[in-house]
Amino acid sequence: MFGRVGRLCLAGLYLFCAPLLAAPSPLAEELARVAPGLNPQALRDAVAAMQCAVEHGAEPARRLAVIDYSQPSTARRLWIFDLQQRRLLLRDYVAHGRLSGENYASQFSNRLGSHQSSLGLFRTAESYFGKHGYSLRMDGLDPGINDLARQRAIVIHGAAYVNPKMVSKHGRIGRSLGCPAVRPEVARLVVDKLKGGQFLLAWHADPRWLNRSALLACKSPRLLQSALRPLPDKG
Fold this sequence. Notes:
Elements: H1 3-10, H2 26-33, H3 40-55, E1 63-68, E2 78-82, E3 87-92, E4 120-130, E5 133-140, E6 155-156, H4 167-170, H5 184-194, E7 199-203, H6 207-212, H7 214-217
Parallel strand pairs: 1-7
Antiparallel strand pairs: 1-2, 2-3, 4-5, 4-7, 5-6
Helix pairs in contact: 2-3
């Protein structure tokens, strides 16, 4: 979409790069109006990656979630949008992996056992009841970046450590083993709104990801079969 130089601009590595960046899509502009606290570039990238996936055979979604991992864990950095009504359904806290960083996430991985968060576009799948209660499986759609999410058991679940009351003592909320865990109070809402084939983009101004993502560049991305197969649990 932007190419190598444009991606580096987004990561803040070049000055005077504005002319290189494509204009935001109408959808991104509409969603930005209902989410003024969300980094506009994170939202533009989320919409661009989602639209690229759909253009290459993925079924359109009804909802889009964006996690802005460039914000601290003390911020409400998870947004969930209704794409049909162009409205914000939820903004809340979300954890990152314990080896991704302290209050700020700075390290990301696709490796099993890394205990780090993954960046990129995910497609949500089936809900289930596990050790963390009502939870949601996801498939990473970016080859080499997040495509081991299911094998790594990267899921959305509620966790007591996602608690803003921890900030005064620890300077951050609690951290996960790599999952985007949410507050128990909103876990059911998050799972119900996102289950069954919605899109989620985990974003950060990380140049390694920005320059490697096939979906952000939309250059013949090799989508996983999970993005193309019929999806269950469309609640």
